Amino acid sequence: MSVGVSIALSFGYRAVISASTGNTAASMSSYARKASLTPLVVLPRGKVARGKSSQIASLGARVIEIEGTFDNAIEVVLRASETSLAYPLNSFNPYRLEGQKTIGFEIAEELGENVDFVIAPVGNAGNISAIWKGFRESPLLGLGRPSPRMIGVQAEGASPIVEAWMRGDNVVRPIKYPETIASAIRIGSPVNGYKAIQAVRESRGAMVAVSDSEILESMVMLSREEGILVEPASAASLAGLAKLKRMGAVRDGSIVVLILTGHGLKDPDALNYLASAWLERRSEPLVARSVDEALQKVSHYATL
Ligand SMILES: Cc1ncc(COP(=O)(O)O)c(C=O)c1O
């Protein structure tokens, strides 16, 4: 987004615009404020996680809420950008992808050529195609030639690229009413669908779909095993890995990078789900009415 906003400034724009499930708009609004540009965002009404809408509102973005899906919102941006009133910053913008490819450089810097799989959640498919571009360009920066298999993960109710992949087709057929708990990847007509299929094919990777309950299980596992809170879209990466392991496609000992895209605080409703998953394990009431009672609880829990 930093690259995209810098380009908007250099082109002499006064305003930037994006359609968003929340994160793009929040990020664009931050950078736009720093650059003294006006942020305009088009959001699908009622479909943006609360942490993200608060972030967008706190940055004073001019918000247009559309009744419909993200795909309706992006149509507004595409049509508005024909007028040159505002510079569009969704991931059909090539400069966005130039920024996003640096994720590939970072992986190459840290792991060199020692990486077998990179697994990313896929909505509009900007990340997966840009990360692959980063790997292809890594040799130009002296970062070796990493060639991991790229794995794209979509939610079952919003998986048009997986469907195209299964058909062996380059053409992604839009899904009119995508549905999943992972709001950041609830996208029926991905703008970079073709590029994602190319990245997956060139890298000998795969596209996989996971269910909402697999996504939630993976969120709980990331909290329990890694101490990492993510929003549901991010947990799709781990759910994808679990699925590939079950299928025998990823062997023990493989080096796998999971792209965790969004922090848990972005989606407090999903965090409440996590919290209740922990609370269900408690047999005792939470509240202590005195210091002594609290100390009893300390010794009870410490010896569990
Ligand atoms: C948290 C999160 N995960 C995944 C994605 C999907 O990324 P892409 O649209 O580049 O596939 C997004 C996109 O907004 C996101 O916000």
Q: Would you kindly provide a brief summary of this structure?
A:
This protein is of the alpha/beta class and 304 residues long. The protein contains 13 helices and eight strands.
Protein model, in words:
The protein contains 13 helices and eight strands. It has helices at 2-10, 23-34, 50-58, 70-81, 94-100, 102-111, 126-137, 160-167, 193-202, 212-226, 232-246, 268-279, 291-302; strands spanning 15-19, 38-44, 62-66, 87-88, 117-121, 149-155, 206-210, 256-258. A four-stranded parallel sheet has the order 3-2-1-4. The protein has a four-stranded parallel sheet with strand order 7-6-5-8, sandwiched between helices. Helix 7 links the parallel strand 5 (117-121) and strand 6. Helix 1 (2-10) packs antiparallel against helix 5. It is globular. The relative contact order is 0.12.
How would you summarize the topology of this molecule?
Layout (H helix, E strand, L loop, with lengths): L1 H9 L4 E5 L3 H12 L3 E7 L5 H9 L3 E5 L3 H12 L5 E2 L5 H7 L1 H10 L5 E5 L4 H12 L11 E7 L4 H8 L25 H10 L3 E5 L1 H15 L5 H15 L9 E3 L9 H12 L11 H12 L2
Parallel strand pairs: 1-2, 1-4, 2-3, 5-6, 5-8, 6-7
Helix pairs in contact: 1-5, 2-3, 5-7, 6-7, 7-9, 8-9, 10-11
The chain binds pyridoxal-5'-phosphate.
The site of pyridoxal-5'-phosphate has 18 residues, from helix 2, helix 7 and helix 11.
